[in-house]
Amino acid sequence: MASAASPTSTIFRRPKQTSGWMSWITTVDHKKIGIMYGYSAFFFFILGGLEALILRLQLAGPDGTVLDAAEYNAMFTMHGTTMVFLFVMPVGAAFFNYLLPLMIGARDVAFPRMNALSFWIFIFGGIFLYSSFLFGTTGPPSGGNLPGGATDASWLGSTINGGWFMYQPNAGPRFSTGTVLDYGAIGLQILGLASLISAVNFIATILNMRAKGMKLLRMPVFIWMTLVVAFLLLFSLPIIAVALFMVTFDRQLGTLFFDTFQGGDAILWQHLFWLFGHPEVYILILPAMGIVSETLPVFSRKPLFGYPAVVFAGAAIGFLGFGVWAHHMFSSGITPVAQAAFGLATMTIAVPTGIKIFNWLGTMWMGKIKFTTPMLFSLGFVALFVIGGLSGVTHSIVPADWQQTDTYYIVAHFHYVLFGGAIFGIFAGLYYWFPKLTGRMMSEKLGKLHFWLMFIGMNLTFGPMHWLGLQGMVRRTWKYPAEYNFGTWNMVVTVGAFIIASSILIFMVNWTKSKRRGVEAGMDPWDARTIEWSIPNPTPEWNFGVSPDVQSLDDWWHRKYDEDEDGRPVRRPDADSTIAQFHDQGVNPPAPIHLPTPSYFPFFAGASFLAVGYGVIYHTRGWGLPLLIFGVILLLSSLIGWSLEPLEEEHEEVHA
Amino acid sequence: MSDVAHEEHVHESTGVETRKLAMWVFLSSEFMFFGALITNYLLFKGRVGYTAPYPAEIFDIPFTSVSSFVLLMSSLTMVLADHAIHRDDQRSTRTWLIATALLGMVFLAGQAFEFTTFVVDEGMKISTNPAASAFFTLTGFHGTHVLVGVIMLLTLIGISFRKGRLSTATGLNLENVALYWHFVDIIWIVIFTVVYLIK
C-alpha cells in the first residue's frame, strides 16, 4: 500500500514490481540480493574453474603446447583474480546478506539500498574486468615468448596478465604497455568499493539492528566472523585503493611511484599490496570458519565448545592479520630484523587458529554426530584446513621460506586453505542453508557423491604440489622440460582437477533438481540451534512475523531442549507445539509489516562505474573524456536522487 | 550517502543513530586511506637524486597557512549550522551552511592557485619526480574530499531553499555532512603539519 509520493523530491516513480526481472533490478531485499550475489559468484566460479582446467591441460605433461607464454600469464592471473575477488568474496557477501538479518532477528540490513548498490557495483566491476578479454590489448610483449614471431597475444592472452598481485614495475606502463592492466587496476578498484560499502553496511547492521536480547555474546559465531571480516575490509581496502590509484596514475598521468628507472619504489607496492593482501586472506577464510562453527554444533548435537574463545580467537586473527604482511616478502631484501619480527608474528597467528580447531574438535567430542552432507563438508574443512595451516606455519621460518618462495609448495599451501578451507566451508553452508532458501532439501546421495569426489580430487590436485614444489617446480611458469621428471605428478594433478570439475557438475545437477523436486523441508529440518530456523522455510518476505526476543545463546535450541543432570539434551514436551506456534506467527504475522521500498538508483549508480572505468582508460581518445564525464554525472545524479528519495512516505505493507 | 531501513524498527542496539554510526565507521576507513597517502609522501620526500624541484623547496607557507585558516573556520561555521538546526532555526542554519560552502570553495580556489603556481612557475609537475607525484596525489585526494563535501553542502542548501526547511529524514542529513566535513578538516591539519610544516 503506497501513499502518494511527494512530487518535489522524486525523479522517477518508485518501482513497485514484485516479480519479473524488474523486481530483481530494483530490489532492496537482503534475501534477493543475497541470492543474486550467490548465483553471480557461482557463475564466476565456473569461469575461474575453466581457467584452472586450461592451466592444468597445459601443465599435464612436459613441454605443453595448449597455451603460449602470454596466454598462460593471462590464464593464471584471471584464475586467481576471479577466484579471490569474483567468487570467494562475493559468495561470502551472499551468505552475509541472506543470513545476517535472519541470525540477528532483523527485518533487513541497516541500509537496504546501499546493500543493492554494493551488489550492482560488484556486478559491473566483474563485467568490466572480464570485458578485458574483448577490448584489452597487451602491447608488444617485452621478452615474451609468442609463437611464430607474433607481435601481440591471442584473445585468450589479451586479458589481465600481471598476476593477481600486479607486482610493480612489471605491471607498470614501462613493461606492460597495453590496456589490460588498466582494466586490472580499475576493475579491482571498483570491486573494492563494492566491498567497502557492504562492510560499512554490515557493521552498522550488526552493531545496531540486533533483536531484543541479542547481546553481542549471544550472536552466532557466523555473525561474529561477519563482523570481523567487515572490519578487515574496512581497514584493508583503503590501502589497496591507494595502491591501485597509484598504479592507475602511473599508467594514466605519468606519476613515478613505481618506476624504478626514475626513483620509484617497487618494494612500496609490495608493502601496500600485502598490507591489504594478508588481511584479505582472512577475509576469504573467516566466513567459512563462521559457517562450520554453526554446522558442527548442529550435527554433533552439542553446543559449540568454548564459544567465547572461538569468538575472541576470530577477532585475534583479525588483529594479527594486519601485522604479518611482510612474510609474503621474505625474499624481497627486507632487513633481517624485519624478517625475524614478521616471522615471529606469523607464528603467533597459529595460536588463535589452533584454539579454533581444538574447539571444533571439542565440539564433536562425545557428540552424537550425524554424517549429513553439510557435516561431511565441515569435517573436510577442518581436516584440510589443518594441513594448509601447518604448511603455512612452515613459511614463517625465514630460511625455509626462501626455498619455498615462488614454488608449487606455496601453491599447494594456499589451495589447501582456500580450496580445502574456504570452498569446503562454503559448500557446507550451501547444503546447510539450502532448505532456508528453497523450502526443500538437497539430495543427500548426490551430496555425498559430490563431497567424496571433491575431497579425493582436491587431495590429488593439491597434495602432489607439495613435493613438486620442494623438488623445485616454480610457479607461474608455463612449461617444464621432460628431464626434470615433473611429468608423472603433474599428470596426477591434472586428473585431480578434472575430478573436482566433475564433482562441481554433480553439485549443479543436485541444486537444480532439488530446487524443483527436493523433499519438502518443513520447519527446522536439521533440529538447529539458531533463530534463523525459528521461521518457516523458505524465508517469508518479511523474515520474522514477530520480532524475536532472544533469551540465550542458541536461543532456538533452548526453546526445544532442556538438559538432564548430566548435561544431556532432553527434548521438552512442548517442543513440537513451540515449533508449530513459531510457524504460524511466521506465516501469518499478527501485525502489518513495513518493508523497504525498491529503488532504481542503486542500479544506475552501479552502472555509472562502467562508464567511469572505460572513460579513464580511453580518456585520450575522442569519446573517452565525454564518457567519463557522463559516468560522473550519472553517479552524482543517482546519488543525489537517491538521497532525496522519501523514506517515510512510501511503504509496502504485508498483511497478516 | 546513507539511507535508513525501516522506521517501525526504531530501537538501536548501541544507542547511536544508525546513519551516524555508519558515517563514523566509514570515516575510520578514510583514516587508513589518508594514512597510506601521507606515508607515501614521507617515504619519497627525503630521497636524494630526484629531478628538482622537490615539493618542500617550493612550499609557500604563509599562503597555505591562510588557506588552512579558512578551512578551519569552515568547521566553526559548520558547528554553528549544526547548532542552529538543533534549535530548529532554519534561517541561520541556511546562512551558516552557505558560509561553510563558501569557505570550502575558497580553500579549493587556494589549492587550484597553489597547484598552478607549482606547475607553471616552479616547473614541478606530477611527473617531475616521485615526491611530486606523492604530493599532488595526497593533496589532490584531500581536495577531492573537500569538493565532495561542498557538493553535499550545496545539495543541502538547495533542499533548504526549495522546501523551506531541512529535515533529518532524508539520507543526506546535516549531522552526517557535518561529521564528514570535520573529518576533512582534521585530515588537513595533519597534512598541513606533517607535509608543509615539519622539515
Q: What does the largest sheet of chain B look like?
A: none
Under CATH, the topology of chain B can be stated as Four Helix Bundle (Hemerythrin (Met), subunit A)
Strand order of the largest sheet of chain A: 1-2
SS class of chain B: mainly alpha
Which residues of chain A sit in consecutive blocks of at least 5 with pLDDT less than 50? 1-10, 648-656
Computed over alpha carbons, the radius of gyration of chain B is: 19 Å
Total beta strands of chain A: 4
User: Mean pLDDT score of chain A, rounded?
Assistant: 90
Helix content of chain A: 55-70%
Average pLDDT, all residues of chain B: 90
Radius of gyration of chain A: 25 Å
- Tell me the β content of chain A: under 5%
Give the oligomeric state.
heterodimer
Low-confidence stretches of chain B: 1-9
Shape of chain A: globular
The shape of chain B, in one word, is: elongated
Overview of this structure, please?
The complex is a heterodimer of chains A (656) and B (199). Chain A has 19 helices and 4 strands. By secondary structure, chain A is mainly α. Among the domains of chain A are: 1-28 and 597-656, no CATH class; 33-219, no CATH class; 536-596, no CATH class. In chain A, the strands form 2 sheets. A two-stranded antiparallel sheet of chain A has the order 1-2. Chain A has a two-stranded antiparallel ribbon with strand order 3-4. In chain A, strand 1 and strand 2 form a beta hairpin. The radius of gyration of chain A is 25 Å and the shape is globular. Chain B is mainly alpha-helical and 199 residues long. Chain B has one domain: Cytochrome c oxidase, subunit III, four-helix bundle (Four Helix Bundle (Hemerythrin (Met), subunit A), Up-down Bundle), CATH 1.20.120. Chain B contains 6 helices and no strands. Chain B is elongated, with a radius of gyration of 19 Å. Chains A and B meet through helix 4, helix 6, helix 7, strand 3 and helix 19 of A and helix 1 and helix 5 of B.
